[in-house]
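One chain given next:
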Amino acid sequence: MCASVTNGRDAIAFLETEHADVVLMDIGLPDRSGLVVGREILERWPETKLVAVTALDDGRAVDDALEVGFRGYLTKDTPVGRFISSMEAVVEGQVVLPHRLVSAGHRRGTSDGIALLVAQLTTREREVLSLLVEGADGGTIARRLGISRNTVRTHVQSILTKLQVHSRLEAATMAVRHHLVPLPSIATAPYDPGSPNAAAG
């Protein structure tokens, strides 16, 4: 079921009678702040996934929304395809943020910031990251997961983008340092993209 309301009061009234898995909330509602309404919604219906959809292109607003408990922040100029994939990610339990708006503190790698970045990884991307930590090359990852090398490359590039790093080695190092994935039972050095096997990925 889908429904649309125009202010915070009506949003609360709707949720008092109907269940909503995901709520898209404008930050600038006509009667009060969408962040205030969002906080009330999460206090009363904590299982609800809130996503801010706003024209406000401001990193501080992203931080405020995350502090309230929003699971995503999208600007109104987000392309339709990206919007749909973001909604699917939120439903799957991920946090969706525009990288350009993540605060400087988060980019520097604070624990909260790392958690937010990692929350954007899909289950498959976490599996790939685990194998990168083991030192697996592209061919090995493809065989282990039963996917093509091209698909591995796609997943790796997505991991680098979401973790805001520039190489497989950086991604693996971040994963080890912050315990992002289970470590292999036998310690191995993080995969070095400069090794001869790098071309296989």
Notes: The radius of gyration is 19 Å. The CA atoms of residues 59 and 102 lie 6 Å apart.
